[in-house]
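cron nightly-structures :: item 1 of 1
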Amino acid sequence: QVQLAESGGGLVQTGGSLRLSCVLSGGTHQRYGMGWFRQAPGKDREFVAAFRLRGGTASYSEAVKGRFTASGDNDKNAGYLQMDSLKPEDTAVYYCASTLRTSDYLTGFRSPRTYDYWGQGTQVTVSS
């Protein structure tokens, strides 16, 4: 049974930084496609970034490109989201997610429906 656990959220001022972590347990994680999503109150879950635990090029939404960096550490079964230059509109619950459906992931990594496993989420609040 694959489980994901996020941590690292909190309250930060505009322009500040936070680093989220996502630790995976169960399964053979180096094969997993990974993603970060966020959901603000009253809004749909939104794609933030896609990455692999084993490294390589990450993909980002236009809203966070140039400010956020997603990465993975295969040895630690962990993924990270470094968030810099935070804005109030970044306020949301952030989730990490994973999937073994490689072909779906290659074309559909921006869609929450592609992912089979989700963490419980961590709250990020950016004050103005």
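cron nightly-structures :: done
The longest strand covers residues 18-25.
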